[in-house]
Structure formats: C-alpha cells, structure tokens
Amino acid sequence: MGTPGVLALLLLFYGGTMWMSVAISKRKESADGYMTAGNRIGFGISAASMTATWIWASSMYASATAGYTYGVAGPIHYGLWGALMILFIYPFGKRIRAVAPKAHTLAEVMYARHGRSSQLMLAGSNVLGSVISLTSNFIAGGAIIAMLSPLSFGAGIAIVAGGVLLYTLWSGFRASVLTDFVQVVAMLGAAAIVIPVIFVAAGGSEMFEAGRAMGNVTPQQESFFSSDAFMNQGAPYIAAVLAYAIGNQTIAQRLFAVREDLIKPTFVTATVGYGATVIGAGMVGVMALYLGVQPLDGDVNNLLPQMAAEYLPLLLLGLAFLMIIGSLSSTADSDLAALSSIVMADVYGQSVGREKANPRTMLLIGRATMVVATGVALYFATARFNILDLLVFVGALWGCLVFPVIASFYWKKVTNLAFTVSVLTALAMFLPVRFEFIALTGVWAVLVEALAIVGVGVVLGIMAFGFFGRKAAVWVGVVATVATLPFGFDFLRDYAVLSGSLVAYAVSFLVCWALSVRSKADFDFETIKRVTGDFDDGGLDPRTQANENTDEPTPTTTKNEGN
Known about the structure:
It is found in: Cell membrane. With 563 residues, the protein is mainly α.
C-alpha cells in the first residue's frame, strides 16, 4: 500500500474517531460519566461496544494462528468458546448489577464485600491484564503497518498508541463506547467481504485438495474433531475465557454501564457477532496452512496481514487494514478506560473515601493513567510476544479469582480470609505448573492431575450454575469430575497449559470452600449498594460516616466476623 496510503487510512480512521470524541466531550466532565457513562447506555451502543471490545485484533490474529497451527478445528475452538463465554456473562452480570447497581469496577465491589486486600488483588490482576492486552493490540497494529508499508514496526506501534490515546483521553469510557459502534459496523462489514474474497483468490475449495496432496496438513489438522486442537487450544481456552468473562474490567465496565434491563439482549447479540467474525478470520489461517505459506520472519502474528497483502486487490486491502486497525483500537481504548477507572475508583476514590473524593482530581488521575499505561504498553510491545500465549496466560491467571469472586456475590459465608488465601494459594500452584518450574513427574504429577480433574468439574459447574442454579452446578461438577477420572491420570501431565488453568480453578475452589463452609459470617448484600455509588454526588460512605470521629478501623459489615 505504501507509506502515503497507510498514513492516509490512519489519518481517516483516527481523525474520525478523534472528531467523534471531541463532539461528545463535555465542558464540565463528570468523573462517573468518564468511568461508566451514567449506567444507562442503550441496547444498540452497548451491544456494539461489547462486540467490538471482545473482537480485538488479538482475537483475529490468534484465531488465524490457531487455524494455521491446529487446522480446521483451531478457529472453531477459539471462536466458539469465546462466543459462548460472552453468553455466560449475562446471568452472573444480572446478579452483579442487582447487588451493585452504581459500581464502577469489580474491585470496588470486592472492597465493599471484603475489604482492601481482595480489592487490591482484583484491581492488580486487571492492571496486569489490561497492560498485556494493550501490548498485544499495539503488537498487532505494528505488525500490519510494517507489513503493508515501508514504515517500521516501531513506527507502527507508536502511531496506533498515539491515535488511540488521543481520542480516548477526551471523554474516557463514553468515547470508547461511541467509537465502538462505528468500529464494529466497519469490522463486521469488512469481514463479510474480505474473507470470502481471500478464499476465492487463493483457489477456493481446490486449495484443500492441493494442500492435502502436497502434504501440508496432518490428519489431526484436517479433522473437525481434532484431539490435538481440543487439548492444546480448545480446553485451555474454555478455562481462560471464562476467567476473562468474570474477572476482566473492560467487560465489567460495560456491564455497569448498560441499562440493567438490557443486559441479556446485549450479551446475546455480542455472542453471535463475535463468533461469526472471529471464526471467519481464523479460517484465513487454515487457508495459509493448506497453501503452505511460511509466516513472514517466522512470526505467526504476521499471517493475517500477509494473506491479505498476497490475495486482495488494493481497495479491499485497505478495507482489511481498517478492519484490523478498528478491532485493535476498539479494545485498546477499552483497556485505557478500564485502567483509568481502576486508578480513579480503587486507588484514589476508595482510599480517600467517596465523601472526600474530588471529581476534578479523579479526572486528572484518570487521564494521567491513560498516558502512563500507553507508555508502558509501548515499551513491552517492542518485545513482540506471541499473542496467543499472552491471552492464555492472562486468562489462566484470572482463573485463580473466578470462584472466589462469583461466590462472593451469592454466598454470605465467604470471608476476606477465604478470598485472599484461596487466590494466593491458587496462584502459588498455578505458576510452577504453567511454566513447568517443577517437572511433571512422580508424586508431583499425580497431585497436579488430581487437582486438574477437580478443576474440570469446577469449570463446568460454574457454567451450569449461572443458568441453572446451585443444584444443577453440583451435579454437573461431580459428574464431570468422575467422568474425567478414568483418563485424567498419566494423561493431563502432557498438557501443562491446560493443567495449569484447571489447577488454578480447583485450588481456589477447594480453599475458598474449606475456609468458608463453617464460617459464621452472614454478610448483608445491601451493604454493597450503600458503599459503592457515584462520586460526583458527594455521597458519604456509610462506614466512614459512622466512624468519622474515630481513628479505629471499620469492619466491612457488622455481621461478618470473618472480615
């Protein structure tokens, strides 16, 4: 496309989003509006924003990588499970909004539910996750700009980072959701045109016969029911995206922003849009596999732009370029908005108390956070990590939090001690398994496999709980665990990524349950509504109000002795 063409498209895209952001900016910005847009976004904007946030460039790149690595089953295992996880958010989301209708972050809710340590754990994991997400999106942007023009990878990531920062900085979350609407329309339209054209230009159905004849694919890569694809891609991703759905602040922020009665249609619509687009993008990787394409510079992140550059005419190449830039920008601005909300609400807002928080100071802190986060992500982007590995790692890391977080919204007995110890213990077990610090042999391997088998039941039980309640969840969890027993031992040790994720779920569940089941705690969930809320209205934190003349610390609730 050349430097002038790429720069013209970037100017068109980021100039347009900047114009939109300035157009909706307010002379006197609200701190709460900057974080959650007043908790009343309608269906069209919220569904588009949820879809655009979940469809990021990393999703397209990673799905293409899955298709190239595992064959036809790869994109299905990536896109299908990712889509279903969006669907699984809404039943839990309805409960979260009922308990905390005016919250800004999940960490803020954990502060009201348990206290500072639980809040910091959730906030810290989201800071790490959003920075990694920013990094991966900048990598995706740098890769396609370097691929399609003489500009370097470093110049590409700098342009993308600057463009996203400028338009998000003005109006925060409101800018993110409004631009998401335009971006998702462009993405879905481009995908519907670009992917079929690549298929036809690459030879249509004949490429599959030719690729098979040339020995470019293995029997596992040809099978829709590939065990290799399921164990290495599908199963770890089921665990990872469930954790993303529950622990990710970019998702929670949209949950707190949409009108409460529109939660279900918003997430159902996003499920369909995500699945169709991402599976389609992954099939480009499958085409590359059958054609025997070698990734440029040996980097699988280059596959999608490489195929577009090879088989699309110039006009459609520009459309594909905008599709990828739109997908990465829609998620990068969500990450910036999430990070700013965490620092505004959890680091500043709750530390000084809602009655003392200055909304103007909060806005300054939020904007400064975006600038710092962009700089940090740019620094890490120069390392050019494998995007698929980053996604699975962060998802598994959040797996340590899933059960304690969900239980905290439903079970009155969960204490701060149970939450904190379960998460730290799960993390301590997850890291050596995931990175194989200790060889998976002998007694250690048997222990890891036993926990992983329990983890299968925990993951499926959590999914069942959202839709069908506690009894169904228990039955599903027990049956899944028993069904995994015959083949789990001496088998799961060969899949460190999957085992690490399952161990995180199992350990956090077992420890949290053991420390809570005999607790005398009886938490009053109405406390959360009183403690969380708007910062701009000058509302008084009731705990601070009750203790404004004393220096003694205040318990989270008068009934929860575990806190």
